[in-house]
């Protein structure tokens, strides 16, 4: 099961909006020793977050702890294929997160730093934004 909000009644079908270039609030480590930071801004879906998380946990062989610092709370809608124009906005098809450049995406602790950096690089390859590993 992918990440998504529990109470979705409060979420209307929102617009994706513009994404700012840089993040200055969530750009430092809170929990782990080493982290992965987004270098560019973009939209990351819940499936991509889960794929990166799985890659990281497999690489560290389920030792240590992994924190996910982003949550997909942006509903993305889609209309059925070959539907005619009009008739309103489509139904919610997936959940995504807006990511600004500099946002910490994942944090890891409890494993060696070289293993953790390799795992975070592997997880960053699963994401559509450019990422960097830091501590």
Report what the structure shows:
The chain is an alpha+beta fold and 135 residues long. It has a domain at 34-77 and 92-134: Aldehyde Oxidoreductase, domain 3 (Alpha-Beta Complex), CATH 3.90.1170. 19% of the residues lie in helices and 27% in strands. It is built from 2 helices and 7 strands, in the order ββαββββαβ. The strands form 2 sheets. Strands 3-6-1-7 form a 4-stranded antiparallel beta sheet, with helices on one face. The chain has a 3-stranded antiparallel beta sheet with strand order 2-5-4. α1 (46-59) runs antiparallel to α2 (113-124). The protein is elongated. The two termini are 30 Å apart. The model has no long low-confidence stretch (mean pLDDT 94).
């Amino acid at each position: 099961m992918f990440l998504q909000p529990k109470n979705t009644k409060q979420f209307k079908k929102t617009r994706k909006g513009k994404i700012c270039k840089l993040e200055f609030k969530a750009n430092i480590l809170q929990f782990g020793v080493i982290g992965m930071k987004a270098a560019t801004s973009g939209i990351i879906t819940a499936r991509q977050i889960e794929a990166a998380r799985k890659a990281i946990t497999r690489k560290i062989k389920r030792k240590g702890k992994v924190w996910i610092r982003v949550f997909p709370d942006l509903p993305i809608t889609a209309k059925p294929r070959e539907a005619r124009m009009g008739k309103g906005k489509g139904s919610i098809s997936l959940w995504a997160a807006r990511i600004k450049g500099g946002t910490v995406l994942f944090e890891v602790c409890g494993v060696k730093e070289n293993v953790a950096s390799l795992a975070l690089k592997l997880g960053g390859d699963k994401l559509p934004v450019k990422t960097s590993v830091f501590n």
